[in-house]
Design goal:
Number of strands: 8
Helix content: 25-40%
Largest sheet: 5 strands, mixed, barrel
CATH superfamily of the largest domain: Recombination protein O, C-terminal domain
Structural class: alpha+beta
Radius of gyration: 20 Å
Strand order of the largest sheet: 1-2-3-5-4
Order of helices and strands: EEEEEHHHHEEEHHHH
Number of domains: 2
Distance between the termini: 51 Å
CATH class of the largest domain: Mainly Alpha
Strand content: 15-25%
């Protein structure tokens, strides 16, 4: 039974019986590992604090060939996310990012997800964090379009753009096509510059954020065939709050 010592992000933790949990961990070198954490549901259990979603831990895991589940022996907390844990909106957004990593790749995404969760915990605008995450994921898969110039005339896109999602083609307004997704000028800028710290920490118009995020999610859902439960749940909850007038 090989012993694995690794840093990991806790993606999910679900009950197993009255006292234990099954945890899904994302690791830098081994991708996703699922393991049983015995006694983790006990409030004073030694694994309780290290099996909370979106915490970064140093884990010791026993793995046995041929078995789907390992055994989590130690879970020492390196970094925690109290802000995410105490805010249902942030928790569901973090869930969307985690769900995407699990759906797209089990072999990578650790550093991108950790950085994104840290940005979310640090108070960065959640829509910017989602842009940062999905752009990084699409670029890593070679699926990020060129938003700097029109694919037809090589003209600049300072006035906005049109996205052909299936083919990943970006056109200027002069080459508008029916069915293409429009992106306003502010959205194009965000799509090109979201990795910059000054952009992440800056304030941006809602129209620009929504336009850029719509383009990003369109690409992710198409290329990865995503049906994000956390994202749909978040949208449904936001709609319900708007209808009832509660923030």
């Amino acid at each position: 039974m090989p012993l694995v010592k690794t840093e990991a992000i806790v993606l999910t933790a679900r009950p197993l019986g009255d006292t234990s949990k099954i945890v899904t961990l994302l690791t830098p070198q081994r991708g996703v590992i699922r393991a049983v954490a015995k006694g983790a549901r006990r409030p004073k259990g030694r694994l309780a604090s290290g099996t909370v979603a979106y915490r970064v831990i140093e884990a010791i895991i026993y793995l046995k060939e041929g078995r789907e589940l390992g055994h989590l022996s130690e879970a020492h907390v390196i970094w925690s996310a109290p802000r995410i844990g105490g805010n249902w909106r942030l928790f569901l957004i973090a869930g969307t990012l985690s769900e995407t990593v699990l759906a797209v790749t089990e072999e990578g995404g650790y550093h991108l997800l950790r950085t994104s969760v840290e940005l979310l915990e640090g108070g960065i605008e959640p829509r910017l964090v989602m842009l940062f995450f999905f752009k990084g994921l699409l670029k890593a898969q070679g699926l990020w379009p060129d938003f700097t110039s029109c694919v037809v005339c090589d003209g600049d896109l300072s006035g906005g753009a049109m996205l052909d999602t299936p083919d990943g083609r970006v056109l200027c307004g002069r080459h508008r096509r029916e069915g293409y997704l429009p992106i306003n000028a502010g959205g194009v800028r965000l799509l090109n510059e979201v990795e910059r710290r000054s952009v992440l920490k800056g304030r941006h118009a809602d129209r620009a954020l929504e336009s850029a995020l719509k383009a990003c999610l369109s690409l992710a859902e198409y290329h990865f065939d995503l049906r994000l439960r956390s994202d749909k749940l978040l949208a449904g909850a936001e709609h319900l709050l708007e209808r009832t007038g509660r923030g």
